[in-house]
Design goal:
Strands 1-7-6-5-4-2-3 form a seven-stranded mixed sheet, sandwiched between helices. By secondary structure, it is an alpha/beta fold. Helices cover about 35% and strands about 15% of the residues. The structure holds pyridoxal-5'-phosphate and ligand LKTG3HHF. Pyridoxal-5'-phosphate (PLP) binds next to helix 4 and helix 5.
Length: about 450
Amino acid sequence: MASPPNNDASGSNNDGTKPLNKAFSKVDLDGHNLPPSPAPSSPSNGRRRYALATELVYTETKDQYGASSIPIYQSATFKQSSAGGGEEYDYTRSGNPTRTHLERHMAKIMNATRALAVGSGMGALDVITRLLRPGDEVITGDDLYGGTNRLLTYLSSNQGIVVHHVDTTQVAPVAKVISDKTAMVLLESPTNPLIKIVDLVAIAKMVHEANPKALVVFDNTMLSPMLCNPLDLGADIVYESGTKYLSGHHDIMAGIIACNDPALGDKMYFTINSTGCGLSPNDSFLLMRGVKTLAIRMEKQQANAQAIAEFLESHGFKVRYPGLKSHPQYDLHWSMARGAGGVLSFETGDIKLSERIVEAAKLYGISVSFGCVNSLISMPCRMSHASIDAKTRAERQMPEDIIRLCVGIEDVHDLIDDLSRSLVQAGAVNITLDGFHATGTAQSVAQASVANAEASETSTSS
Ligand SMILES: Cc1ncc(COP(=O)(O)O)c(C=O)c1O
Ligand SMILES: N[C@@H](CCSC[C@H](N)C(=O)O)C(=O)O
């Protein structure tokens, strides 16, 4: 995993569990020292016995033939021994053994007592927002995944829900709008695509004090349970798009919801059974198979992302990535997370230039989504966030030229070579004797961003 800022020798594993043997647990496969957990203690609540990488692959299947991989129970119905029923399963919409196996595994991985698997990340948010009633208020961020923004806009236009979009990187803007009508505070971090960091711990504390009935809901798609356990940091409900890191191969759509309150879990299960959005047996199997390699994929993806972020920054681009010390919320990120993840974005200052870079790339597929084993490149304002109208994007200061890189597990030299070639081919860099440097617009964007960061540092310290 990438290194957090402080490097003491407290002796816990990088996912917060206690090592049995310090000598081995603090050395990774390459013999480098592993950093200790920067996250606040991150207790396992008694559900996880081993380090997360071990728990991801360790499962107990209860199968009559001792199958070591959960079978796909591809059946809509289950026979009952009598008309009275009473068996665990009757109908796959209500429950299916393959899905149950995945849900129990995910609960363990997410430090939850209950996990629920549905057909997509948006399906997960739909289930969660059905806890709301007309007149309820939701507080959320001003840099949100486009689909989340679209669902919230629908709820406010059609379901009588009031939605406040505020800057959730700080507590004060949330505290300003919280009231006894607030039913939900919906957070996402790092935000997609501006890679802003949300202070979950401080916001959850403030929300629970100001309105104990309000639920703090956290979208952990960008980090995955490998890097962050929001339930340990104050969230009441956490959800993720299983389409991304959890499954890891962009071959399924899935969503996972987790919580520690049995009553909340029952309410959300009621919605899943009533609406029929539970994950199919086949996709439950694929998600179960994919999640076993999450630790090793994430380790490689974020090591590659770190190298690419440093490469771009060293050549004068304004890069947004929480693994870079230049990220304005670097310390805050590392206080909550065990790694920086595999998504970064950078600006060029020119939409056409960004288009040329994206289209010149060969190894990076032009595609939405992230978290899969192969690298992707996109222009969020045209693609993943196109459902946010241009005026709102401008109000929220989303640069139209922003390029998002979702880094995979390829050889990092190939990835950097392909990016360098694309930058040169697009005319984004000048080649000089001492290497190459961002040209005109890209360079002035980077310089302006340094000037802005220095100005905001001066204004906060004065
Ligand atoms: C941060 C985030 N949350 C939720 C979703 C929704 O997930 P899905 O596409 O699986 O519905 C996405 C992407 O789609 C996302 O980027
Ligand atoms: N056309 C889709 C776009 C999906 S974006 C997927 C992913 N979350 C990302 O950020 O790339 C839609 O309208 O939802």
